[in-house]
User: What shape does this take?
Amino acid sequence: MRLLSVLVILFNLVTAYDKEAAAFWAQDCAFGCKECPSDTSCGAASFTTHALNHGNWTYGYESECETLWSNFKNGKYDGWSFAGIKETDIYRGDVVIMNNGRNGDASHCCIGTGNGLVSCHGPGNQNVRPYVTGFFDGYINGVYSYVGITNIKPSICNECTSNVCSILPKPDTSFPCYQGTPENTNMCHKTDPLIKTDTYVCDTCASQGYSNYLQNDPIYMNMELWSKNIRNELYSGIYGDTIISCSPYDADACNCVYYARDRQKSLPSGLTTCDDKKSKVNSHSPAPGCVLFRTGDPTYCHAAYVTKVANGNVYYDQANWTPCKCSSDYLSTSSSAILGYWCP
Assistant: This one.
């Protein structure tokens, strides 16, 4: 499937660290966010590495600032360099390791979000001088800056004040319009090899004439895809699903629920909206013959008929994922896109 080739390209592309994306996330989450709601659930090192991962960091997450510091000093992180120990050495996207004045060296860490400024876990620690974050009698152990390969695509959406930003396709192409939050849109633009344009608006796709919602992107699941035309053969290749025959259920090819009920006759009625589908979930353990509910259209979500569960994946047949066609696809059983299952 083309999805596999896209993933391979994406893996090879996402090797450069995006300082702006890391700093943007750190600023946005300084007062708490879904990924890092509180100090208890997301300490300094966790917050810092969450921000780094939003900047295409490829080294996962750490729970201790001391581990980060040790790895920086030992050269584990390719492309990173020691920049100094002063506030004036701090720039956006840098990692700042600190002694907090109470618990010794590398007891605190933050992300640089301005010249001499950092953002850290804990309410109020947004674009502040390091000492404000809790090292009153401490000092900076080290500022580490990325000096390796940088992305060639520019950052976008940073000036958007609303919670939406859309990437517009090139004129006279059948490519979709991408819509999401400014942060997610910027990250998608930076790392998706299929996007060949830098044109964007701080508004919805519909405001630019792309009024037909298609689905959420299968890789960037927080990004919605919109088109001017309801049907477009290009999208089956982008989506990665394999087109199959709808026979003998061709009449229901444009409705995912009708098709799922064709395959599973016992499926209850009343499955129009996302909330309807969530209310019918009676299992989180898939099996052949169950109906999978997943994210998709932001109002209606999506339903699919489970055909197999193997090797940590759930396989399914579906209708109208590629508009008005039937297809087969699969997800990891641990995918966050799965809302649950209705099983007979």
About this structure: The chain has three domains: 13-146, 165-237, 241-342. Residues 6 and 206 are 26 Å apart (CA to CA).
